[in-house]
Amino acid sequence: MGMIRAFTNGRLCVNGRLVADQLLVSEESGRIVAPSGDVPDEVIDLEGRIISPGFLELQTNGVLGFHFTHHENDEQYSTQLQRVSKYFLSKGVTGFWATVPTVSSTDFNKILPSLAPRPFHHGASLLGAHVEGPYLAPTKRGAHNENLFLSPNSSALISTYGLQNLQTSIKLLTLAPELPGSNSLIRTLSTEYHIRVSLGHSAASYQDGISALNAGAKSLTHVFNAMNPLHHRNPGLAGLITSPAAPFYSVIPDGIHLHPATLTMAFRANPDRCILITDSVELAGLPDGVYPGHAQIPSLQRKEGNKVTIEGTDTLIGSCCSLDECVRNLVEWSGCTLAQAVKCVTENIAQLMGESDRGMLAVGRRADFVVLDDGGKVLQTWIEGKKVFG
């Protein structure tokens, strides 16, 4: 077991509650361990601070000027991923899924091999890719290029993404369930490739959503954005969040994509299924201004605070909000506790994605965790029992 480090005099985020307890970590294995009765080799006094599982970023398109579609060559791409992974540590993120929006099949096949899961030295781990497209509804395209949209077709999956990428890189895929052939595609993705399917960029009805869930879909992508609004006689996909077989569902709590009251309603509807995402674009971490586009956005992009739009329009491209900011926003706007908000960026995501090694402060799991103050500010980030930020 080697050296044991004990974190004492703190509170742990466990299943949406703050629990007064110690955290024991083996430096040799980088895992959380159970009390053995022996005196720890080192004791760290948290002075009342809070320990959270490391945050998990489920939907990010990039940060610091690097968009995950910016692939020049493998060496350049790997260098940028390392830079991104190190930046995430300051936001409490210890693992992330890189989102690739709708691009050409050629670009998917070029980019996705670099997004197979891997760790980074002193950085958040890359946990795979989230592909958002090309099976999306033209009427709910958002900032996606509808000229690149395809109809769901299981036989074309390999040409669209590449067999190796389906088997190793892609872990989450967003599609519109009302498109003909979508349920068959969901079954193929779920059973043959073990890819989680999420429903989004869609004008689907409630019944379309139920059919997709029965086919194997597991979640909804940025609820209320790029989908039909909730209507009292036609609830659409948003109505699924309180259905008997409620899926997980993500929301963007930046105050731009959703009004704080709408965010609060979504969270309160089903806190055990709610997931916070940034949907950050590459302008996150950069000064305000007008920036060039990329493989997804051929137009200029305007950044104003956390808001990013296609220049000359009101079309939202994504957000520049960080995940720790999302947590604090949910606490402020909904009145929930910090531990409840933390659950939406840790345990809920781990459960959706089948992550048995991360997302919880439990014996045997990786000692990836964050030290927070009472206001949710990230003070320290630890990966496998080693401090990497703070």
Commentary on this structure:
This protein is an alpha/beta fold and 390 residues long. The chain contains 10 helices and 25 strands. The chain has helices spanning 74-89, 105-111, 157-161, 163-169, 182-192, 206-215, 260-269, 323-334, 338-343, 347-353; strands at residues 4-8, 11-14, 17-20, 23-26, 31-32, 42-45, 50-53, 55-60, 62-63, 66-67, 93-101, 118-120, 123-132, 170-175, 196-199, 219-220, 248-251, 274-276, 289-291, 301-304, 307-310, 316-319, 369-372, 378-383, 386-389. The strands form 5 sheets. Strands 8, 11, 12, 13, 14, 15, 16, 17 and 18 form a 9-stranded mixed beta sheet that branches. The chain starts with a strand and ends with a strand. The model has no long low-confidence stretch (mean pLDDT 95).
Summarize the structure.
This protein is of the alpha/beta class and 390 residues long. It has helices at residues 74-89, 105-111, 157-161, 163-169, 182-192, 206-215, 260-269, 323-334, 338-343, 347-353; strands spanning 4-8, 11-14, 17-20, 23-26, 31-32, 42-45, 50-53, 55-60, 62-63, 66-67, 93-101, 118-120, 123-132, 170-175, 196-199, 219-220, 248-251, 274-276, 289-291, 301-304, 307-310, 316-319, 369-372, 378-383, 386-389. The strands form 5 sheets. Strands 8, 11, 12, 13, 14, 15, 16, 17 and 18 form a 9-stranded mixed sheet that branches. A 6-stranded mixed sheet has the order 3-2-7-23-24-25.
Fraction of helical residues: 10-25%
Shape: globular
Major sheet: 9 strands, mixed
Q: Round the mean pLDDT to the nearest integer and report it.
A: 95
Number of helices: 10
